[in-house]
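The material for today's practical consists of a large collection of protein records. An example says more than a description, so a record of this kind follows:
***
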Amino acid sequence: MTEVSFYHLRTRPLEWALPRLLEKILERGARAVVMTGSDERVEWLSQQLWTYDPGSFLPHGSARDGDAPDQPVWLTAADENPNGARFLLLTDGAVSGAVGTYERCFEIFDGNDEAAVGVARQRWAQYKSAGHSVTYWKQNERGGWDKS
């Protein structure tokens, strides 16, 4: 079964946390799909990934860029895996019917939004009942993660 990790954003926003999670995935030589809630959000996140750190480069692409098989990180609003990724990062409440085909799924949610917290609790129960291994990470004051 897939390892599903919930990432509870508390002190830093998605555009700060996402690049750091993706860097760790790429350091392992792995690929990722980042699924968002809309095509507009895909484009916004793409811009954030290009500019989050002037001294860094985080290779990624989307349907707008093409060449999905060559992209180590694929940004999409669709439930797809065109780059052969082992890691799925769900943001903005995006839902995938293919979680079980990935090695690991990251459910990233805004802990300052009560509706998002409620949805995360429901998804936790759904993943558990489906037999997935579920873990919970809470963002600490430094922006790092504490496993609970």
In short: The first helix runs from residue 14 to 27.
